[in-house]
Design brief:
Shape of chain B: globular
Shape of chain A: globular
Oligomer: heterodimer
Strand order of the largest sheet of chain B: 1-7-6-5-4-3-2
Largest sheet of chain B: 7 strands, antiparallel
Distance between the termini of chain B: 29 Å
Number of helices of chain A: 13
Radius of gyration of chain A: 20 Å
Structural class of chain B: alpha+beta
Number of strands of chain A: 18
Strand content of chain B: 25-35%
Number of helices of chain B: 4
Helix content of chain A: 25-40%
Strand content of chain A: 15-25%
Distance between the termini of chain A: 10 Å
Structural class of chain A: alpha/beta
Largest sheet of chain A: 7 strands, mixed
Number of strands of chain B: 7
């Protein structure tokens, strides 16, 4: 089959690889109809996530048709149309029993490697380095889906692929970012980053009852999408000082909740500040550039919530713990526990509360995946989301 | 050498005890055991692979057996590798199942040199026993050992150092894995 293969920093190409096979009784094989490039794939592309290997198949946002099931998969049949959540979860361990599916205790066969890096292992993730299991990803014609009796959700309505594809990651990830804020009537939420997760965090914050949502980015077209499609007020951080503007917009209080939808490769408009972390990150003295997170901490209202949805991989310098502690901020974070949001969010899509396809700006053939990565990375051609068709 | 490891499994004590009491099932989750055979009540013959392609065999005797709580065993006198082990089952707090605590003591084949060689090949005993416990937990909780394309054999310390690329296995490697071999 054809698959998107990582072969080093800034190098992906579509290659012929062997077709996936059932390895365990609870596996299924899915013929992929649509797959997307995630912002977090860019961290792999840029070489900031350790434990990648030449030849790894990328991709953790995909859907398609079941073409084969293992002997222990009772809930799916060949021909079923499914969306597959990006974390792989067994459904039977204590983490899964508590709904913490991205922390499944059984799905990461490289747990001892992850334990060394993070202190304990996380769940397996499709196409996302060997720390999360070394699973082949879904930017391909086919994928093997382990624990297929637990993860995939069947799509039985006639919704288009692009309306349900983002249930695999970015919609639930944005939703969880907003949910972690425990939004009360009257609350103001600020969202750093207007990529796909930021867009869904904005939309979700409104669905969860936020009074106002303020979006922060520097790309005009992304801010425009946040304003026109997701309904946010906007701040262009290259035009206005973020903290002062947020104070001004909130009567001096600051936002009640701050969502970081940026992660480890943040940008800073002050060249000196940017250079400090850029150099330390490039020389691997720190693994994160933390401007958005630091700014979110300084901007947040006393006693407020800092919700981190952006991906971080290791260690950050100059983390303002003094502001967090003394001003009583609550930090909530985690890879999204996608499984627990699939049904309720599909219901919302079916009811018409939201149509997640608004983020799609680019549709390409799988064969053009390497162009897709370049376009998305450099935000060329007003790119927000690339969907690949095998 | 003395190693300890523990894991919490979402199952009742009695079920886990019964699983461990059947020594012949150990090779299903203990990666370095080839075969364990019960030769008489309480007595068993063990065959294991050792670092550098060596193998080892010994006989063991159960020295303590408290149903649902604890099993201990000891290699019989005259074994080439003197070793002993204990597994305790303790209820985990709340509804989280059972804590499985394992302790092993043994003389390393090749002494200090063997221990160093084992470490170099990623077969450090503390990691090995934790990996075995992870596989045990996977079998009991999910009915299978989690396999990825990068680690098709499932959790195995030495595999951490030589991962395959995360792409489907060619037919020959696939056969080796599905026939139970170490691809």
């Amino acid at each position: 089959m054809r698959a998107t293969v990582w072969s080093g920093r800034n190098k992906v190409q579509v290659e012929n690889v062997p077709d996936p096979q059932i390895l365990n009784g609870r596996d299924a094989i899915v013929k992929i109809s649509s797959t997307a490039i995630c912002g977090s794939d860019l961290h792999l592309y840029d070489g900031y996530i350790p434990s990648m290997r030449k030849g790894d198949i990328l991709g953790h946002e995909f859907m398609g048709e079941v073409v084969e099931t293992g002997r222990d998969v009772g809930n799916l049949e060949v021909g079923d149309r499914v969306v597959v959540p990006f974390p792989i979860a067994c459904g039977a361990c204590n983490a899964c029993a508590r709904g913490l599916f991205s922390l499944c205790e059984n799905s990461n066969p490289n747990a001892s490697m992850a334990e060394k890096m993070f202190g304990d292992a996380t769940a397996g993730i499709f196409g996302y380095s060997h720390l999360t299991g070394g699973y082949a990803g879904g930017q391909a014609e086919y994928a093997r889906v382990p624990f297929a009796d637990v993860g995939p959700i069947k799509i039985e309505s006639d919704l288009e692929d692009e309306q349900v594809l983002f249930l695999s990651d970015v919609f639930p990830t944005g939703w969880m970012a907003a949910e972690m804020c425990d939004i009360k009537p009257g609350d103001v939420v600020a969202v750093w980053g207007c990529g796909p997760v930021g867009q869904f965090a904005i939309a979700s914050a409104y669905l969860l009852g936020a009074e106002r949502v303020i979006a922060i980015d520097r790309f005009g077209y992304r801010l425009q999408m946040a304003r026109d499609k997701a309904g946010a007020e906007i701040i262009d951080y290259e035009q206005a000082p973020v903290r002062a503007t947020l104070r001004e917009m909130t009567g001096g209080r600051g936002p009640d909740h701050c969502i970081d939808a940026v992660g480890m490769e943040a940008h800073h408009h002050n060249p000196g500040m940017y250079a400090y972390d850029r150099v330390k990150q490039a020389t691997r003295l720190e693994s994160e550039r933390g401007y958005s997170l630091r700014e979110a901490i300084f901007s947040c209202r006393n006693g407020g919530t800092l919700s981190i949805a952006g991906v971080y991989g290791g260690f950050m310098d100059k983390f303002p713990i003094g502001a967090v502690m003394n001003r009583g901020l609550t930090i909530k974070t985690g890879q999204c526990h996608v499984h627990r949001y699939l049904r309720p969010l599909l219901d919302r899509i079916e009811k018409g509360d939201i149509d997640p396809s608004f983020i799609v700006t680019h549709r390409m053939s799988l064969d053009d995946a390497s162009d897709g990565y370049e376009t998305f990375k450099h935000k060329q051609d007003e790119c927000v989301k690339v969907v690949l068709k095998p | 050498m003395h190693v300890k490891a523990a894991i919490t499994v979402r199952r009742a004590r009695g079920e886990l005890y019964a699983f461990w009491r059947d020594f012949e099932g150990f090779p299903d989750f203990m990666a370095h055991l080839e075969e364990v055979r019960e030769t008489a009540p309480g007595r068993s013959h063990w065959k294991a692979t050792a670092p550098l392609g060596m193998s080892a065999e010994w006989d063991a005797q159960i020295t303590e057996d408290v149903a649902g709580e604890r099993i201990s065993w000891h290699s019989v006198e005259g074994s080439k590798i003197e070793n002993s082990g204990t597994v305790h089952f303790i209820p985990a707090p709340g509804d989280q199942g059972t804590e499985v605590h394992v302790e092993l003591r043994y003389d390393v084949p090749g002494g200090a040199v063997g221990a160093l060689a084992a470490k170099l090949f990623g077969e450090e005993p503390a990691i090995q026993i934790k990996d075995d416990l992870r596989r045990f937990k996977q079998i009991v909780e999910t009915g299978e050992i989690a396999r990825s394309e990068g680690t098709p054999t499932g959790q195995l310390g030495k595999r951490m150092l030589r991962q395959r690329p995360a792409q489907p296995l060619p037919a020959d490697e696939l056969r080796a894995v599905t026939s139970g071999g170490d691809a």
